[in-house]
Amino acid sequence: MLNSSFLTSEYQFDGCIRNGQFKRRLGFREIEPTAASERVRRFYLCALRNEFNEGDEAGEPPTYHWVLSLEISSESSIMIDMVPGCGSDGLRGKIEVTALNERYTHEVLEVFSFDSQEEVKVRDVIELIQNKGRQSFTFSPESEGCRHWLSVVMADLDAASWIPQGSAMVAYEALLKYWKNLKGYKPRAMIKGIFSS
Questions:
Q1: Are 150 and 175 spatial neighbours (Cβ–Cβ below 8 Å)?
Q2: Residue 78 gets which letter from DSSP?
Q3: Please, which residues have CB within 8 angstroms of residue 29's CB and are 6 or more apart in sequence?
Q4: What range(s) does the DUF7770 domain occupy (predicted)?
Protein backbone atom coordinates (compact mmCIF):
# COMPACT_ATOMS: atom_id res chain seq x y z
CA MET A 1 0.00 0.00 0.00
CA LEU A 2 1.31 3.46 -0.90
CA ASN A 3 1.93 6.01 1.80
CA SER A 4 -0.80 8.63 2.02
CA SER A 5 1.59 11.33 0.83
CA PHE A 6 1.65 9.67 -2.59
CA LEU A 7 -1.45 11.66 -3.45
CA THR A 8 -0.25 15.01 -2.17
CA SER A 9 0.73 17.80 -4.52
CA GLU A 10 4.26 18.07 -3.10
CA TYR A 11 6.66 15.32 -4.04
CA GLN A 12 9.31 13.83 -1.73
CA PHE A 13 10.75 10.45 -2.68
CA ASP A 14 14.28 10.15 -1.43
CA GLY A 15 16.59 9.31 1.42
CA CYS A 16 17.68 12.89 2.06
CA ILE A 17 17.93 14.12 5.62
CA ARG A 18 15.33 16.80 6.26
CA ASN A 19 14.98 18.29 9.76
CA GLY A 20 17.27 15.60 11.16
CA GLN A 21 15.12 12.68 10.00
CA PHE A 22 15.17 10.33 7.07
CA LYS A 23 12.17 10.69 4.82
CA ARG A 24 11.28 7.58 2.88
CA ARG A 25 7.85 8.58 1.74
CA LEU A 26 6.18 9.04 -1.59
CA GLY A 27 4.31 11.88 -3.17
CA PHE A 28 4.31 14.00 -6.30
CA ARG A 29 6.04 17.21 -7.29
CA GLU A 30 4.86 18.77 -10.55
CA ILE A 31 2.39 15.92 -11.12
CA GLU A 32 -1.37 15.93 -10.83
CA PRO A 33 -2.68 13.29 -8.38
CA THR A 34 -4.65 11.67 -11.23
CA ALA A 35 -1.35 10.75 -12.91
CA ALA A 36 -0.92 7.95 -10.37
CA SER A 37 -3.78 6.01 -11.93
CA GLU A 38 -2.70 6.51 -15.55
CA ARG A 39 -1.82 3.36 -17.49
CA VAL A 40 1.79 3.04 -18.67
CA ARG A 41 1.73 2.39 -22.41
CA ARG A 42 5.48 2.11 -22.92
CA PHE A 43 8.73 2.38 -20.97
CA TYR A 44 11.59 4.45 -22.41
CA LEU A 45 15.18 4.15 -21.24
CA CYS A 46 16.72 7.49 -22.22
CA ALA A 47 20.34 8.64 -22.49
CA LEU A 48 20.40 12.42 -22.17
CA ARG A 49 22.46 14.49 -24.56
CA ASN A 50 26.11 15.41 -23.91
CA GLU A 51 26.32 17.80 -26.82
CA PHE A 52 30.11 18.04 -27.07
CA ASN A 53 30.96 14.56 -25.70
CA GLU A 54 32.72 16.26 -22.79
CA GLY A 55 34.34 14.65 -19.78
CA ASP A 56 34.54 16.33 -16.39
CA GLU A 57 37.04 18.65 -14.69
CA ALA A 58 38.83 15.70 -13.04
CA GLY A 59 39.67 14.16 -16.40
CA GLU A 60 37.00 11.45 -16.29
CA PRO A 61 35.85 10.26 -19.74
CA PRO A 62 32.66 11.61 -21.36
CA THR A 63 29.43 10.47 -19.83
CA TYR A 64 25.81 11.54 -19.57
CA HIS A 65 22.77 10.94 -17.45
CA TRP A 66 20.10 8.27 -18.00
CA VAL A 67 16.42 8.45 -17.01
CA LEU A 68 13.29 6.30 -17.30
CA SER A 69 10.15 7.71 -18.92
CA LEU A 70 6.70 6.15 -18.59
CA GLU A 71 4.54 7.00 -21.61
CA ILE A 72 0.92 7.56 -20.56
CA SER A 73 -0.31 9.03 -23.87
CA SER A 74 1.12 10.00 -27.25
CA GLU A 75 1.75 13.47 -25.82
CA SER A 76 2.61 12.90 -22.16
CA SER A 77 4.83 10.89 -19.85
CA ILE A 78 6.17 10.65 -16.31
CA MET A 79 9.96 10.85 -16.03
CA ILE A 80 11.68 9.01 -13.16
CA ASP A 81 15.16 10.28 -12.45
CA MET A 82 17.62 9.06 -9.79
CA VAL A 83 20.08 11.89 -9.11
CA PRO A 84 22.82 12.53 -6.52
CA GLY A 85 22.75 15.52 -4.22
CA CYS A 86 21.92 14.46 -0.66
CA GLY A 87 24.14 13.87 2.34
CA SER A 88 27.30 15.67 3.41
CA ASP A 89 29.17 14.39 0.35
CA GLY A 90 26.29 14.91 -2.07
CA LEU A 91 26.32 11.26 -3.14
CA ARG A 92 23.11 10.02 -1.55
CA GLY A 93 20.52 9.72 -4.28
CA LYS A 94 17.03 11.10 -4.56
CA ILE A 95 14.33 10.32 -7.07
CA GLU A 96 12.80 13.16 -9.02
CA VAL A 97 9.50 12.51 -10.76
CA THR A 98 8.39 14.97 -13.42
CA ALA A 99 5.37 15.22 -15.72
CA LEU A 100 6.31 15.89 -19.36
CA ASN A 101 4.18 17.01 -22.30
CA GLU A 102 5.93 14.53 -24.58
CA ARG A 103 6.45 10.77 -24.76
CA TYR A 104 9.95 11.19 -23.33
CA THR A 105 12.26 14.12 -22.76
CA HIS A 106 13.36 16.06 -25.84
CA GLU A 107 16.88 16.20 -24.35
CA VAL A 108 17.43 12.57 -25.31
CA LEU A 109 20.40 11.35 -27.36
CA GLU A 110 19.47 7.67 -27.53
CA VAL A 111 16.22 6.02 -26.49
CA PHE A 112 15.30 2.37 -26.00
CA SER A 113 11.61 1.45 -26.03
CA PHE A 114 9.95 -1.40 -24.13
CA ASP A 115 6.26 -2.19 -24.54
CA SER A 116 4.15 -2.53 -21.43
CA GLN A 117 2.99 -6.14 -21.16
CA GLU A 118 0.36 -5.65 -18.48
CA GLU A 119 -2.18 -3.09 -17.29
CA VAL A 120 0.54 -1.31 -15.35
CA LYS A 121 -0.22 2.08 -13.82
CA VAL A 122 2.20 4.81 -12.77
CA ARG A 123 1.24 4.00 -9.17
CA ASP A 124 2.36 0.38 -9.68
CA VAL A 125 5.81 1.41 -10.89
CA ILE A 126 6.31 3.80 -7.97
CA GLU A 127 5.11 1.10 -5.56
CA LEU A 128 7.55 -1.40 -7.04
CA ILE A 129 10.44 1.02 -6.61
CA GLN A 130 9.38 1.69 -3.03
CA ASN A 131 8.74 -1.93 -2.09
CA LYS A 132 12.12 -3.03 -3.48
CA GLY A 133 13.88 -0.24 -1.58
CA ARG A 134 15.30 1.28 -4.76
CA GLN A 135 14.89 4.81 -3.39
CA SER A 136 17.77 4.15 -0.96
CA PHE A 137 20.80 4.51 -3.22
CA THR A 138 24.24 6.09 -2.95
CA PHE A 139 26.24 7.10 -6.01
CA SER A 140 29.91 6.20 -6.50
CA PRO A 141 32.66 8.66 -5.46
CA GLU A 142 32.72 9.75 -9.13
CA SER A 143 28.99 10.63 -8.81
CA GLU A 144 28.14 7.79 -11.18
CA GLY A 145 25.39 5.26 -10.61
CA CYS A 146 22.33 6.18 -12.67
CA ARG A 147 23.10 3.35 -15.13
CA HIS A 148 23.49 0.83 -12.33
CA TRP A 149 20.27 2.04 -10.68
CA LEU A 150 18.33 1.80 -13.93
CA SER A 151 19.70 -1.67 -14.72
CA VAL A 152 18.31 -2.88 -11.39
CA VAL A 153 14.93 -1.16 -11.88
CA MET A 154 14.66 -2.61 -15.40
CA ALA A 155 15.39 -6.06 -13.93
CA ASP A 156 12.57 -5.47 -11.43
CA LEU A 157 10.18 -4.55 -14.27
CA ASP A 158 11.25 -7.65 -16.21
CA ALA A 159 10.80 -9.91 -13.17
CA ALA A 160 7.30 -8.48 -12.69
CA SER A 161 6.53 -9.35 -16.36
CA TRP A 162 5.65 -5.71 -17.05
CA ILE A 163 8.06 -5.56 -20.01
CA PRO A 164 8.88 -8.31 -22.54
CA GLN A 165 10.95 -11.15 -21.11
CA GLY A 166 14.64 -10.50 -21.66
CA SER A 167 14.23 -6.71 -21.74
CA ALA A 168 16.41 -6.29 -18.66
CA MET A 169 19.37 -7.77 -20.56
CA VAL A 170 18.68 -5.55 -23.58
CA ALA A 171 18.64 -2.54 -21.26
CA TYR A 172 21.82 -3.66 -19.48
CA GLU A 173 23.70 -4.01 -22.77
CA ALA A 174 22.56 -0.53 -23.84
CA LEU A 175 23.70 0.91 -20.51
CA LEU A 176 27.20 -0.55 -21.04
CA LYS A 177 27.76 1.74 -24.03
CA TYR A 178 28.64 5.40 -24.36
CA TRP A 179 26.46 6.62 -27.22
CA LYS A 180 28.29 9.37 -29.12
CA ASN A 181 26.43 12.56 -29.91
CA LEU A 182 26.81 12.25 -33.67
CA LYS A 183 26.60 8.49 -34.18
CA GLY A 184 27.90 5.20 -32.92
CA TYR A 185 29.04 4.16 -29.48
CA LYS A 186 31.96 2.78 -27.53
CA PRO A 187 32.02 0.39 -24.55
CA ARG A 188 31.81 2.00 -21.12
CA ALA A 189 32.28 0.12 -17.85
CA MET A 190 29.37 0.49 -15.46
CA ILE A 191 30.43 2.10 -12.20
CA LYS A 192 28.09 0.89 -9.48
CA GLY A 193 26.45 2.69 -6.62
CA ILE A 194 25.23 1.10 -3.40
CA PHE A 195 21.69 0.18 -2.39
CA SER A 196 20.91 0.35 1.31
CA SER A 197 17.92 -0.70 3.40
A1: yes
A2: E
A3: 10, 11, 12, 96, 97, 98
A4: 44-195
